[in-house]
Design a protein that fits this description.
The chain is of the alpha+beta class. The protein is built from 13 helices and 16 strands. The protein has helices at about 5-10, 120-125, 130-155, 215-225, 260-280, 280-290, 295-305, 315-320, 325, 345-355, 405-415, 420-430, 440-450, and strands spanning about 20-30, 35-40, 50-55, 75-80, 90-100, 160, 165, 180, 205-210, 225-235, 245-255, 310, 360-365, 380-390, 390-400, 435-440. Helix 3 (about 130-155) crosses helix 6 (about 280-290). It binds one RNA strand of 75 nucleotides through strand 1, strand 2, helix 2, strand 11 and strand 15.
Length: about 475
Amino acid sequence: MHATPVADVLRGKAAVDSSVTVHGWVRTRRDSKAGCSFLQINDGSCFGSLQVVAPKELPNYEQDVMRLTAGCAVEASGKVVASQGKGQALEVLADGVKVVGWVDDPDTYPIQPKQHSFEYLREVAHLRPRTNTFGALARLRHTLSMAVHRFFHERGFYWIHTPIVTASDCEGAGAMFRVSTLDMANLPRTPDGQIDFTKDFFGKQAFLTVSGQLAVETYCLALSKVYTFGPTFRAENSNTSRHLAEFWMIEPEIAFADLSADADLAEDMLKYVFRAALNECGEDMKFFAERIDKECIARLEKFVESSFERIDYTDAIEILKNSNHAKKGKFEFPVSWGMDLQSEHERYLTEQHVGRPVVVMNYPKEIKAFYMRLNDDGKTVAAMDVLAPGIGEIIGGAQREERLDVLDRRIAESGLDPKAYNWYRDLRRYGTVPHAGFGLGFERTLIYCTGLGNVRDVIPFPRTPGNAEF
RNA sequence: UCCCCGGUAGCUCAAUGGUAGAGCAUGCGGCUGUUAACCGCAGGGUUGUAGGUUCGAGUCCUACCCGGGGAGCCA
């Protein structure tokens, strides 16, 4: 028999007086000696729970209903009726309540109807989706994911499944996780004592990807507008509220495009995705505004209505130098042209100077990756970072170097082996075009939407140094 | 990896170096078409681990483990 989602009942899709069956988990039970118990049933189909009225005439009332506690799984059937109580418009008057799954030890069931700390809930990550917050997050995460795909699909982008395992160690963006089937207790050796990776699964060293960018460029230079959206892995020993060893990243790449078009795309995409959060996750966003961050809805509304502030790196340095903050000596790191922006500088720009996300463009070439396009001044590259209040860098992007001679020079300057990049160089030998792209950290975007303070709480199963439970 | 803060009941937290407590949750009783219901009673603890100082350590010291905030690195 088909169960009706709780969402359909609460939204009036099941007619009053019609019979329905709902499945779900008990959030609370309240008993009335007037002759019934009230069960709050949640099935995750929406934020709200359905009140099921279980009258004491039910044959299993004493045996089952009176023993229900938070977390029990039930199937309830009955009529949809207008509620006599105040908290809800509709409820279900049960003619049957079947217990599908008991909580075997209610005394120690980890999820109680009260506020739990996020730190505690991380330790019970297998049960935290049963809370209001993590249910809302799961729905929001899904909605934003779908909005990302819809945004690109509507604009003629193709989703490219770039590899998770990469056999080249030339991706450059930090420490990588090794993928190997070698027997670690008995490693094969070459005659000179090195580990013989020709004996490994792929016949050479392999790693988990740190970015799909280089690979997606190959499809960009054939299909024009492409993107990746998948998991990414960084083996850095980073312990902050903004870093995960496994996270999800969105990386569009557009051909016949420059940095300005890249920034336009970033702006359009974020606005589209945030509109989806506001329009499609109203109840969940309302909950975040009530319980997590009062500003979160207003922040998104403001974002979708205003345009990005764009600042040249060189101007940003001047702004920082001339700020009262600098004059009062409040920056720990002195500001000078050529330096990478420290967290305190990024925070000042986005939180104090602009008050919303800001794009900083055209950084000195020395502090950016080899593949970013050298500007005509010979000193800067066409790179951009989108900085968001409270988070810092949410997007990192660039126009790519499409000129083979310049690329080769940059590879040499960076001390890299050109041979490792032959396939990447081929893209510049055969029909090269200006192209650009960026990477958006999905979890950081969710933090911006919800006001939650830690990326570990917006991904279902966080992986961080020393932690890969569940 | 570095700096700072923390770890006490299932959960959230109290306790001047001197008998370990409260709220919620759970169990029992009462009351009520109830709304994180309410009222009463009860059970529930190797105070993160291992040492040390002291007549006496949850409290002070050392090491380690775990968690948080910040930094670096980045998305």
